[in-house]
Amino acid sequence: MWSKYKERDYLNKCHNLLILGGTFDPIHMGHLAIAKAAYLQLKPQRVLFIPSGQSPHKRDKQITGASHRYNMTAFAVCEHPAFDISRIEINRQGPSYTIDTARNLRKICPAGAKIRFLIGDDALQKILSWKDAEELLKDFEFVTVPRPGYEKCDASDKSISDFVDYLGTTYNARIHRLSGPLLNISSTDIRKRLTAGQTVHGLIPKPVEVYAKQHGLYAAADVVAIDYTADSPASGKFCFEAAQEELRIRLSPERYAHSMGVISTAEKLAAHYGQDAEKTRIAALLHDCAKEYSADKKRALCQLWGIQLDEALESNIEVAHSLLGAESAKRDFHIYDTSIQQAIRYHTTGYIGMTILDKIIMLADYIEPNRSNWGPIKEMRRLALTDINQALIIRIEYNISKEKQAGRPIHPWSLDTLKELTYNS
Ligand code: ATP
Ligand code: MG
Q1: Ligand 1 in contact with 51 (CB < 6 A)?
Q2: Test site for ligand 1: of 57, 85, 186, 190, most ligand atoms within 8 A of the Cβ
Q3: What is the C-alpha to C-alpha distance for residues 298 and 119, in angstroms, rounded to an integer?
Q4: Where in the chain is the domain with CATH 1.10.3210.10?
Q5: pLDDT tens readout for residues 115-130
Q6: pLDDT in tens, 62-97
Q7: Is 259 a pocket residue for ligand 1 (Cβ < 6 Å)?
């Protein structure tokens, strides 16, 4: 349903990856619960859900088409800021073997990146039957979670922990065991329930249920209407240090350093232009919080959160990270102050009637100290404290010329902003 993007567009900066592979036919709360538990305990930069293409273990079974399983997975995971999805297996010809994915990811992620696989105890029990299991166990770490009904190894009546010890001594496997959560949910059961017209409430995310019903997967049940744009911010409080720590884990080191640079630059500009220091710090911290999402995750979130994609955003979805960042600031970080949201929303394109705070964040994004001396940056830095409008005019003109060179449409908001700033200066 969405754009073609390359895995390397967003995984090449991921230094700590936790992978949850599966058939996801359909994805359910058990998958999400183990991913959340592992995320909280192990703090990877990203949890990557990889729907399988052809599953070698389920060859004799009827499996829902890969694009439907992928789309359902995208809807289920996209709202968690640290979760993302990958097409790496559904794009590959032939059966999906984990070892091939592992080798691929090792090439895509930065050298030395930590790559771990999260699996349930049912999958662990079968691991020696996986392709090149010895290499996989030797070269990659595993994280396992218990699963009700799989406390003992099928064939041997051995306990799972004995089996883990055996894998450690025999294959040098590094296996980290999580103690929970224990959720007796399976896709098999959900398929049966849907086919029988029974409720799956609480077992799969609502958008997955709606998608399955709308596409007639599993059963031809009634279509349920759902308002994806419903705005129901969970109550919660913003804590700067906690948000900063979350971003430190979730963003690439380069992006995190950039955000810190934007904070220090924006703070100086705010002091100079008499702006609220706290609001400035928050907007600067969060301005790129959605930047490193994959293109498909950005599209899925725009759909779920009711963000309209105009022609320019449609052809360059990356620009939508500012709009998504503003929405994430509200939904994920409990920022309900609209002036902060606005500064995040327009920091890439600009907008007619920008406030000083909007201008500070937009300019700080471009002149913070980690930016190398590209283009007219020296001139922008020189003008920052004397003529912020002129500094922004230079920046927007530069951007427009770059976009033109790349053959991409210019966002109309940028053209409007340029006109307004030029008129006023
Ligand atoms: P099916 O019933 O079709 O086999 P499933 O519920 O087992 O589906 P999969 O997509 O096969 O889901 O599982 C992907 C991964 O998630 C596997 O490693 C599996 O062990 C793990 N997993 C799935 N459900 C749970 C659960 N409830 N608890 C722990 N691990 C789970
Ligand atoms: Mg299974």
Answers
A1: no
A2: 186
A3: 26
A4: 240-424
A5: 999 999 999 999 999 9
A6: 899 999 999 999 999 999 999 999 999 999 888 899
A7: no
Q: How buried is residue 68: exposed, middle or buried, by Cβ count under 10 Å (0-12/13-18/19+)?
A: buried
| Segment 333-338 long-range contacts (CB within 8 Å, at least 24 positions apart) | 333/238, 333/243, 333/286, 333/289, 334/233, 334/234, 334/235, 334/236, 334/237, 334/238, 335/238, 335/282, 335/286, 336/233, 337/279, 337/282
| CATH of region 240-424 | 1.10.3210.10
At the second CATH level, the architecture of 8-214 is 3-Layer(aba) Sandwich (3.40)
Compute the CA torsion angle 7, 13, 18, 24 (nearest 10 deg).
Answer: -20
Nearest-CA residue for ligand 1 atom 7 is 186
Could you tell me if 18 and 50 are in contact, meaning their C-beta atoms sit under 8 angstroms apart? no
* Radius of gyration of the chain measured on its C-alpha atoms: 24
Report whether pLDDT(167) > 70: yes
Q: Whose CA is nearest to atom 18 of ligand 1?
A: 119
Please give the Cα distance from 275 to 357 (Å, whole number).
7
Q: CATH 3.40.50.620 residue ranges in the chain?
A: 8-214
DSSP H or E segment with residue 292 = none
Element (H, E) at 46: strand 46-51
